[in-house]
Amino acid sequence: MEPLNFRHEGRTIRGTLHLPERGDAPGVVLCHGFSGNRTEFGHTYVRLGRRLAERGIAAYRFDFAGGGDSDGEYGDITVSDQVSQTLAALDALGQVPGVDKDRLSLLGMSLGGLTVSLAAAKRQVRFLALWAPAAIAVADEVNVRRRAIIAEHGYDDFGGTPIFQRFVDDAETVDAFADAQGHTGPVLLAAGSEDGIFAPGVLEGYQKVYGDQLEHHRLDGVGHGFETVPAREHLLDLTEAFIVRHA
């Protein structure tokens, strides 16, 4: 592992690179979920990064602005800003000696999953891997509810992290499915059967966007964070296999 930082709109975005020994390696950018950081739940991104490097694939995990070690305030978060940061992370990874800039891909968890699906519509990547993508974060009914709560309290309390008006204003400009159209490579989508954030209609929405490109895995008995040891091991195994197959 080694540090890899980049600048984005006056902020230093800090990350960690897992670089394989051989050169000309494909690369994957790993994007964490809401209020998370570049290790992800149960250190799954650390474990995945190590496993991919052993398979000859570079993995770059970074903290979104305001999260983890990166500059900024997390209250300033918007989906569009995260998409822009993700594109900058692809550029940073593509400039690393030993990484093939023409063989880059994206993986994201939850809000990071929504983010990478939108980024891949703006920049061609080889594949997408979506862990429990939080398309609901920009849904109209959620925006309406949040706007009312913020008008009364000044913020929406989401699991102990405040969401402010700027997030809602931006979310209202985003269509999780229409704005994801354009990616032409394979897509992995994994979600738990008890995931309340992976809302009804989300799978169908992505099936319409990606069609036969989509490989869906339902992990029974777990929620949004894949909360058991067997589920997380299975998630890592199926994700590693998918990445090795398509990188």
TrEMBL record:
<dbReference type="InterPro" id="IPR053145">
    <property type="entry name" value="AB_hydrolase_Est10"/>
</dbReference>
<dbReference type="Pfam" id="PF12146">
    <property type="entry name" value="Hydrolase_4"/>
</dbReference>
<dbReference type="InterPro" id="IPR022742">
    <property type="entry name" value="Hydrolase_4"/>
</dbReference>
<dbReference type="GO" id="GO:0052689">
    <property type="term" value="F:carboxylic ester hydrolase activity"/>
</dbReference>
<keyword id="KW-0378">Hydrolase</keyword>
<feature type="domain" description="Serine aminopeptidase S33">
    <location>
        <begin position="28"/>
        <end position="135"/>
    </location>
</feature>
<dbReference type="InterPro" id="IPR029058">
    <property type="entry name" value="AB_hydrolase_fold"/>
</dbReference>
<protein>
    <submittedName>
        <fullName>Alpha/beta fold hydrolase</fullName>
    </submittedName>
</protein>
